[in-house]
Amino acid sequence: MSGATIEIFITMCAYMALVIGIGLYFSKRANESSENYFLGGRSLGPWITAMSAEASDMSGWLLMGLPGVAYWSGLSDAVWTAIGLAVGTYINWLIVAKRLRQYSHIAGDSITIPDYFSNRFKEENKVIMTIAALFILIFFTVYASSCFVTCGKLFSTLFGFKYQTMMIAGAVFVIVYTFLGGFLAESASDFMQSIVMIIALCAVVISGVAAAGGLGVVLDNVKAIPGFFEFFGIAKPTLADGAQQLGAAGEPLFGDTGNYGFLTILSTLSWGLGYFGMPQVLLRFMAIRKSSELKKSRRIATTWCVISLSAAVAIGLVGRVIFPSSLLTAGAAERIFILMSQQLFPPVFAGLVMAGILAATISSSDSYLLIAASAFSKNIYQGILKKDASDRQVMMVSRIILLTIAFLGILIALDENSVIFTVVAFAWAGFGATFGPIMLFSLFWKRTTRAGAIAGMLTGGGMVFIWKLIIKPMGGVFGIYELMPAFICSCIAIVLVSVLSGQPSQAIQDEFEQAKTFEC
User: Is residue 189 part of a domain?
Assistant: First the structure.
């Protein structure tokens, strides 16, 4: 390694040591009980609630996946996705956060999302709990793999080692950290990491614009690429064997502007629907110490989200101007943030900036592993298989499952050509369609029944696979993002089955009314 690379490495190691220190600090309190380990004892303040929710939600795709999309095909795909996510963030905090904090407390003091659904419908045979836990295991395994891909691409690009080796090393670090501290450590470190992420994004954008010669130069260059700086068109790189072709002067070649119509925009905006079903965000709503503090959290979270998403899109556009022909595949394009950091900053500061990628990856992967492990240990093992399981046994099982999920995620992430944005999109759709509709209906429609909840979850989760693997390849109007049709189908299933299955019990209806006014 060169001297500059060694400096970057030392800086990132120092950051990793700080993160592990946070885990050690919180490990004693986290291991006092499963409630502390999985939900932090409902003790989070408004700043940590907001910032940790956004950091765990955005993950490495914010610094690599989204800039990569903008670098590869221009403004439209990236910006409509960002708009959908920003609007979804605000609405989720506005209408879901307070009601879920109240209802999860009333519904058996639930500490996981499957717990809440099961307690909300007062089921005895735990069918909802089992379905919810299994979907969490499936989609968080995919999510964790996307984080491991991020680690692999980051370290292999920086240090020149084999991708697979670096990916596994990053995964091991995340596993060790999650083992130590649980939810409290995760949330506290996520707060710090959210600050690192937003500083890194803004620093790269500002430096990139300066290096390009100013904002005017950037705009002139991106407008010269067909479809690259359009809201209703999309750039089409000229490809051969998946790689963009270069002209005689070494310039990247693009075809005619592609169409980006109303249906495609609606489909891309539907990313915002995913927030209603994201366990890592919903758990923060449940964990805040007082529901009255959620208004402050909403403002913090929305502001962070808008700034970070805008910066991520801008990095892709500016990067195409500075390094027009350096990254010639969709997968390689996701390295634009790393490339700009290495070229634009002194080594130590570049290490701090790229710690932003590591921050994003850690903040998400530990959330995914922890929630997935809790879904099995609390909801399937203790809820169904061994109801008299002690807290110590639950904790032991959760760590075994955590290792299993991480191993499966590593297997999925072994492909060096994986596109982070594509992997995340599938898992995001899975959670959004499986849990989003039933979360909204369970909180706001008293008439929702247990049968309707089961039908909605199975329909939403199943339709994500059906649309992605069978219908979407047909193209045309069917080529839309699978979240939107799956979300709609889930809503229809909930309403139809709830109406046909009779009224919920009086106890369920009374509890629903109580949740409207309960203060905690």
Answer: yes
pTM, full prediction: 0.84
DSSP state of 234: E
**Residues 386 and 393: beta-carbon distance below 8 Å:** yes
Q: Per the structure, how many domains does the chain have? A: 1
| Residue 186 near residue 42, CB atoms below 8 Å | no
* Maximal C-alpha separation, the chain: 75
H/E stretch holding 444 reads helix 420-444
Whole-angstrom Cα distance, residue 340 to residue 193? 20
- Whether residue 107 is contained in a domain is answered as yes
Are residues 132 and 114 in contact, defined by beta-carbon separation less than 8 angstroms? yes
Tokens encoding 219: 């705009």
Beta bridge partners of 258: 234
On the 0-12 / 13-18 / 19+ scale of CB atoms within 10 A, 475 is exposed
How does pLDDT run along the chain (520 residues), one tens digit per residue? Answer: 567 778 887 887 787 777 667 666 666 555 554 444 444 445 566 777 787 778 777 766 788 889 999 999 999 999 999 999 999 999 999 999 999 999 988 888 887 788 899 999 998 888 898 898 889 888 888 878 887 887 888 788 777 788 888 888 888 877 776 666 555 555 666 777 788 888 889 999 999 999 999 999 999 999 999 999 999 999 999 998 888 999 888 889 999 999 888 889 999 999 999 999 988 888 888 877 777 888 898 999 999 999 999 999 999 999 999 999 989 898 889 889 989 988 998 888 888 877 767 766 766 677 677 777 777 787 778 777 777 777 778 778 888 888 888 888 888 888 877 667 787 889 899 999 999 999 999 999 999 999 999 999 999 999 999 999 999 998 888 889 999 999 999 999 999 999 999 899 999 999 999 988 877 6
Residue 179 lies in a domain: yes
The residues pairing with 244 across neighbouring beta strands, listed in sequence order, are: 239
CATH number at residue 113: 1.20.1730.10
Asked if residue 190 belongs to a domain, the reply is yes
Burial of residue 216, with CB atoms counted within 10 A of its CB: 0-12 exposed, 13-18 middle, 19 or more buried: exposed
Domain around 54? 45-517
Here the tokens at position 322 are 């500075």
* CB-CB contact of 231 with 76 (8 Å): yes
SS3 call for 179: helix
- HSE, CB side, 13 Å, CA atoms: give it for residue 351: 17
